[in-house]
Every structure is written in C-alpha cells, then in structure tokens.
Amino acid sequence: xxxxxxxxxxxxxxxxxxxxxxxxxxxxxxxxxxxxxxxxxxxxxxxxxxxxxxxxxxxxxxxxxxxxxxxxxxxxxxxxxxxxxxxxxxxxxxxxxxxxxxxxxxxxxxxxxxxxxxxxxxxxxxxxxxxxxxxxxxxxxxxxxxxxxxxxxxxxxxxxxxxxxxxxxxxxxxxxxxxxxxxxxxxxxxxxxxxxxxxxxxxxxxxxxxxxxxxxxxxxxxxxxxxxxxxxxxxxxxxxxxxxxxxxxxxxxxxxxxxxxxxxxxxxxxxxxxxxxxxxxxxxxxxxxxxxxxxxxxxxxxxxxxxxxxxxxxxxxxxxxxxxxxxxxxxxxxxxxxxxxxxxxxxxxxxxxxxxxxxxxxxxxxxxxxxxxxxxxxxxxxxxxxxxxxxxxxxxxxxxxxxxxxxxxxxxxxxxxxxxxxxxxxxxxxxxxxxxxxxxxxxxxxxxxxxxxxxxxxxxxxxxxxxxxxxxxxxxxxxxxxxxxxxxxxxxxxxxxxxxxxxxxxxxxxxxxxxxxxxxxxxxxxxxxxxxxxxxxxxxxxxxxxxxxxxxxxxxxxxxxxxxxxxxx
Length: 569
Hints:
By secondary structure, the protein is α/β, with parallel strands linked by helices. Helix content is 35%, strand content 15%. Helix 1 crosses helix 2, helix 3 runs parallel beside helix 5 and helix 14 packs across helix 20. It is globular. The termini are far apart. The C terminus is likely disordered.
C-alpha cells in the first residue's frame, strides 16, 4: 500500500508504542501525525518545552518507552535552534529522545551559514537526513535502534518535504528489539570476591539502573550482600530511601560511607565529577568497581579496579547468582546501627526545621508538611534547579521507583513542570507535585497554560522568597551572588493571581498552619483534573546537605572545594 513519507513515520511511531508527540508548531510532520490519528499531539508554548516533555517521558520509561517530539526545521530553523538547550540537557543527562524535524530541501541546501548536521552532531547520539521516501522505514529503524541499544541519548531525524510515497509492503517496518549484554563471568567472579573481602563497601547507583529496569534486582542484591546504597541525583528513587541500607544522595550518612569506603561499586553511573555529584576523596586508596554499558566511562575520572561491561539489570542478576554461591547474605547488626546513628544525626539538623512555626515560612516546613499529605507509595515529586532541588533532595524520602525525578548535569530551569506533565502519562494514578523557586517559575510560566488546556492534575508549589538561588549576604555568609539575587517582593507581584487568571486553582499561603489545608485543597482539585498553584511566602534559607567535596553554595562564591596542590583524586 502506498503511503506518504510523513504518514509512514506516523504509523511507525504507533507501531513502536509511542504514547504521544510533544511539540510547538510548526513542523510539516504534525498534520500527517494528526490526520493518521491514534497519537495525541501535546502542544507546548515553546520548542524547549516540546523537547523537555519528551525527555522527561523517556526518563520515566525504564528503557521501554521513549518520548517523541517534533520541531520546526528546514531553512532558517528558528524552532530547532531554540530547542537546543533542551536537547543539550537530554544529551548531557543521557536521555533517549526521538526528535523529528523538517529537513532542508535539496534546492535550499547550502544557502545558510547554519548547518543542522554539523551542529547537532555534537549533542545527539545520531543524526540523519532522509533522502527518499522508501528509506523512511530504514531510518526509523536505525533511530529506534539507537534509542533502545547502548548509551541512551537523543537522536535527530531530518525529514524534508515532498519526499513522495513508498510502498509499505515492499518496505515494511518491524519494531526494533533492544539488544543488551551481560558482563564477562570472570569479571563477575572477581567483583564478588572484592566485595566479600571489603571492610567498608558501598554501592553508588545512577540513573542507568532505571534504563535497565533493574530496581528490583538492586534491592535484592543490596539485601543479599548487606551493602549500603547511595544514589546519584538522577538515580534518586532507584532504591527505597526508607530502607535500612539506604544512605540517600547527600548528607551525613553519604559523607561518612563514601569517604570511609574501601570498595566503591558504581552501578549505572559514569562517575563523572560535576556540579551535582560527589567528589570521591582518596580515590587512589579505594578499589572502585564500575558497571556500565559504555566503555568510554571506564578510567575516565577515576582509576577503575574492576569493570563490568553490561546492562545493569542483567549484571545484577549475575552478581546475585555468584554472590549466593560464594556465601553472601549475612546480616550485619553493627552496620545497620551505624546507618541509624548517622541518619539520626542528620535528622537532628533538619527535624526542627520541618516543624518550624516561623514566618516567613521556613521552606523545610513546607516539605515536611508535604510529606505528611502525600502517600510515599503512590506519588510523584520533582524539584526545580537551585535551592528547591538542594533542599528537597536533602530530606525527601523516595520509597518507590520514580517517586522522585532527579535531573541535573545540565539543569535548564523549568524542567520540573515538564517532568510532572510526563508523569501524568506514565503514572496517571499518582498525584504529581512540582516544587519550584522564583527563577524556575519564570521559566515555566507560559507553559502553565498548557497544563490547564490538557486538564492535567498537577500541583505547582512556588517557594516565593523574593530571591534567586545565588542569594546575597545573610546568616549563611556573604552569599554567592550578592549583586544579582533580588526579585520583586510578594507585596509587588502576586503570582497566585497570575496562576488563577490562567485557570488554575491558586492560593497564597503565609502562615505554617495553613500549609496542610492548602495542600489538601490542591490535591482535591487535581483529582478533578484541575491543576493547582500554591504560592508559599518563605524565608531565604540556603541551607542543605552538600555533595561530598563541594563547598556550601549559599556561603561561598566558590562552587568547588579546591584540592590541595599535588593531591591525588
């Protein structure tokens, strides 16, 4: 049967199980996808959000579901160019997104100083140009192969107009299989021997575990081996943080076990030092084991004692089998007592804050009351870049996979709303919460209209402290950005009224006693498919548990703690 190139792409997307296509008009593919039917078009208010929603959906997809977006391309492709920040975030954060755009027609090629291929080659796993309609199945096959196999990253496919038709019986499309591998059995045996002989081993788990759908195996292995678990920011919620072996992602338990470990087993993380990860102190004195699907990660930042090249889920199954053979599984009462003690020390710092009655409201009081209202086994939370992310991830206990969405190698502000939107398609039964500060709200403001338009039951929590995350001077020290942190006060701008004008249930909350009632009213509105916006008038309180080896952001202008001259890392 003859089909146009664009209609063929629409059918292939459905065959691959795509849930929706996010976009900002216009792209020539959109009308054909809409005419084909069966695949909702989720229209955002800018191209960056079109990519971001697809990106977030992929992050929540466990390597089985992939976000798709369309972008205005072709000659003078302003839409594609505007989306670059979001595509770069997907690339840096290793998110497998399918981006479809208009290709520059043959008669127009060479007429612009901007070359799509040259530029996006740097921030995609694979980019290609479809030369003929008959090659649509081939290129879509290659696109999904790149999404499903190997290191996850975005792919970009350029589809010029007027490609004509092809016969889908002569050139059929067969959905792509994901190809995964186990580790070398000898490496598995060596790893287990290292762990059994270790005095203070620790597991350091990243988002690669999600893409392998390996959370059950991680839990089984940690309990079998009795090894405590740290997760990266993007790996948060891969391991239940109320578990007796959970150390969280930052704070006293993490600092102690990370710094004092003799064997560090990294699973599904590149171990790349960045603004949102730990510095592994005295790494040269530790035996570091790394499980990854990409050999480029090995010996990149730290010397690796033992590597396991393979899919995290499959490798963990191998380790469980081998560990059982070699006699693992003994309970370690002293270890569990130490974890409880360190957690108590951390709770002593933040416990008083989550019950504080001060005004303006201490932000930790909002997070503490939110935890009282939400069911930790049936909710979705994500926090915006800056103080909201740092504060929430310090104390929030994620108890189920994707109960919290962490992100941040390259943190484009506003992504939290895209994450919550994607969660409504992935986990429609879970209440979805966005926690954002003044800077993040500005980035997402236009796209709040789309949340109302699609009747998405999301609650946006705005922590309004009249300042950006750099902060000026205060009890915490000189501040990181004393000249560029102040924004309009609540007396000047009422953001809850703005949100109400956009059709959301909106409230401003100024006293701690009103936090829980307001949250309950918002969730009631969400249950009726109406989004909500809660503006909490908060104090500036840039205190949180830092990543190991990093300076306290609110107290210093130095992002990193400089190592001593000649120090080994």
